[in-house]
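[recover] target loaded
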């Protein structure tokens, strides 16, 4: 029997085929795997740049392109006959000599670009890599056939022109050198392209190289494994090097923090880390996030990754508020009563000296955030993230106003969610020692906790999570992106007893470059205070794929804007995009209702939601409407500059973050519209 590996591109191309063609192709691959006489036979390719490339007839007018070495066959692509032959002729395959990963080259395209590159650099004596000798180039894995082309390059633009044609393991170190980096820095970039260390690298050993490249290849030993690879979503099987490394690392000696922009695979890492801990850990695992909608998404995806019921039961998926609710309910022997809107209470407490919004923010972002229990503690506490100074007298007045509201809630037997979380953290912190033994069998702590969307958790929620898992190896694994923060929560984990080791993701595998670039400019691209000490920046954040530029359309009236939305969504559906792969988002409830009603009247059923509702979701095409001045940013969500200029700046960044999150949910095409004057957030 052949040893069969399947590429990520093969699964994507297979999924895009018509159902009858896809069915025939799957049957053919199964037969080939089992060496059936009825299975396809490898056919040699004339004039191939790599003699190890063959094709397999998998369906009527469709062929698979395979790389063959002895009994190993790697299914690289499935294409119409003529395209398959062309692909097989123009590509070559290598094993990177420095890190041992598989590399795919469009050799014909590189050959064609050489004359233009020679002409472009003829008038310049400067050479981009003139200061790097061949030996040093080879030491960072640069391919010998690429080297003559590199010697022609005189500007960064030359490297950018060939980037789409280069394997990432070639481009990453070359980019570092082009930016003035040292060989050591180039090696660090190259090191980020591998996830399995190798003492000895055999550049003729394709099978081992495929095993070292889980983002490109997955082996199928039998039909069950093959069908799983071909049917489950790609992220269940194929992990890029950083994703594989971080999710499968054997032991983190301290809490780990993974940050990265939209599309870098943070949630995928969190899911696979939870699965890894369930399979190899020593106790119950909690996969936590901040909203119940995301909990349902995570649970569904985790079911796809873990097919062993016993292992799956070791992972609990919940949001932090529900965890707090359960802890308090178990302690008190009854379900706690939560309060909905507390605005009236804060208005009563405000009087003439403070605004109700100011008092609420002070309570949540200073007092509950730092778990202050007395006036003395509050008087001594700093107030990070605020731009107004409070005298001891004013602080005393604030404390009395807070006491009034808390007293009213206590008298009515009600609590806010943040109060509940804070109480649960106290209860769990006091009892963790006992719960490690057999004294409280109904309330077990977790051995491992994985946190997704960490940027939106409040400090009180972090205190609860810290109390829910005993400190030790692999205790806390955290993923998040401060640039996607949707709530006014800014917390450095080290200040809450969670000293993290931080890792950063730079490559978006989901977003095309055009949407990514638009999103970065929309977000502002500047630094924000992050989950770790200091700030997080978007410098170096990039994509490996290209697509259409986002469409930004302005209309004279709201009615014309809705008509434009209907026209574009109708066109998308006519193009064959499934309705569940289309989403419409807006900032206000009124706009959401208007868009939903108009689409339904036209017989169109797609997801229509507010910007908040797009968090954690992905769609092929997204329309974000109503991005007009006076709507985005939402005026009612902005603190007056006269009251607190720092808080207003944070509010504006939060509003930018909302729009950034919604726009970066589009994997293929983004449409943004407004009527009247455009939002000041939109890039010019």
């Amino acid at each position: 029997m052949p040893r069969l590996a399947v590429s990520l591109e093969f699964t994507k191309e297979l999924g895009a085929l018509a159902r009858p063609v896809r069915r025939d192709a799957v049957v053919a691959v199964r037969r080939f795997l089992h060496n059936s006489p009825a299975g396809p036979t490898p056919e040699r390719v004339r004039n191939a740049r790599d003699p190890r490339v063959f094709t397999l007839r998998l369906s009527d007018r469709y062929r698979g392109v395979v790389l063959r070495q002895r009994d190993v066959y790697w299914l690289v692509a499935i294409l119409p006959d003529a395209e398959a032959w062309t692909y097989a002729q123009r590509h070559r395959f290598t094993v990177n000599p420095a890190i041992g990963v598989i590399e795919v080259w469009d050799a014909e395209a590189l050959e064609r670009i050489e004359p233009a590159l020679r002409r472009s650099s003829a008038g310049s004596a400067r050479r981009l890599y003139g200061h790097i000798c061949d030996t040093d180039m080879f030491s960072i894995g640069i391919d010998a056939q690429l080297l003559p082309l590199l010697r022609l390059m005189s500007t960064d633009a030359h490297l950018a022109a060939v980037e789409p044609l280069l394997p990432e393991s070639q481009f990453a170190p070359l980019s570092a050198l082009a930016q003035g980096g040292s060989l050591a820095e180039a090696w660090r970039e190259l090191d980020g392209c591998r996830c399995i260390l190798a003492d000895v690298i055999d550049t003729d050993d394709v099978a081992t190289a495929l095993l070292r490249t889980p983002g490109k290849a997955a082996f199928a030993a039998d039909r069950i494994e093959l069908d799983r690879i071909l049917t489950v979503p790609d992220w269940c099987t194929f992990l890029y090097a950083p994703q594989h490394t971080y999710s499968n690392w054997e032991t983190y000696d301290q809490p780990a923090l993974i940050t990265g922009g939209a599309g870098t695979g943070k949630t995928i890492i969190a899911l696979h880390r939870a699965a890894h801990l369930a399979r190899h850990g020593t106790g119950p695992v909690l996969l936590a996030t901040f909203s119940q909608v995301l909990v349902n998404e995570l649970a569904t995806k985790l079911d796809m990754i873990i097919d062993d019921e016993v292992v799956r039961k070791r992972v609990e998926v919940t949001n932090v508020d529900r965890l707090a609710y359960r802890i308090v309910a178990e302690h008190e022997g009854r379900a706690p009563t939560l309060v909905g809107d507390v605005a009236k209470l804060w208005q009563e407490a405000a009087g003439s000296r403070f605004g109700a919004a100011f008092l609420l923010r002070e309570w949540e972002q200073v007092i509950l955030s730092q778990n202050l229990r007395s006036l003395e503690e509050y008087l001594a506490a700093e107030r990070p993230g605020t731009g107004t100074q409070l005298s001891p007298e004013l602080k005393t007045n604030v404390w009395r106003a807070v006491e009034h509201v808390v007293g009213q809630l206590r008298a009515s037997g009600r609590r806010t969610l943040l109060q509940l979380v804070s109480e649960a953290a106290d209860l769990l912190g006091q009892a963790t020692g006992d719960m490690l033994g057999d004294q409280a069998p109904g309330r077990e702590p977790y051995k491992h906790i994985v946190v997704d969307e960490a940027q939106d958790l409040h400090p009180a929620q972090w205190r609860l999570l810290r109390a829910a898992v005993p400190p030790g190896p692999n205790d806390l694994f955290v993923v998040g992106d401060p640039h996607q923060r949707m709530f006014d929560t800014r917390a450095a984990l080290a200040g809450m007893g969670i000293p993290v080791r931080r890792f950063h993701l730079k490559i978006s595998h989901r977003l095309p470059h055009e949407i990514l670039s638009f999103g970065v400019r929309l977000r502002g691209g500047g630094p924000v205070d992050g989950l770790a000490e200091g700030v997080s920046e978007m410098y170096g954040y990039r994509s490996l794929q290209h697509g259409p530029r986002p469409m930004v359309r302005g209309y004279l009236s709201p009615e014309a804007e809705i008509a434009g939305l209907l026209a574009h969504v109708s066109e998308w559906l006519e193009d064959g995009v499934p309705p569940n792969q289309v989403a419409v988002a807006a900032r206000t409830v009124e706009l959401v209702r208007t868009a939903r009603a108009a689409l339904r009247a036209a017989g169109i059923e797609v997801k229509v939601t507010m910007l908040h509702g797009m968090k954690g979701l992905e769609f092929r095409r997204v329309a974000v409407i109503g991005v007009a001045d006076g709507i985005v940013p939402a005026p009612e969500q902005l603190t007056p500059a006269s009251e607190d200029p720092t808080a207003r700046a944070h509010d504006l960044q939060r509003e930018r973050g909302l729009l950034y999150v919604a726009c970066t949910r589009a994997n293929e095409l983004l449409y943004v519209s407004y009527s009247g004057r455009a939002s000041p957030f939109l890039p010019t």
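[recover] notes: The two ends are 59 Å apart (CA to CA).
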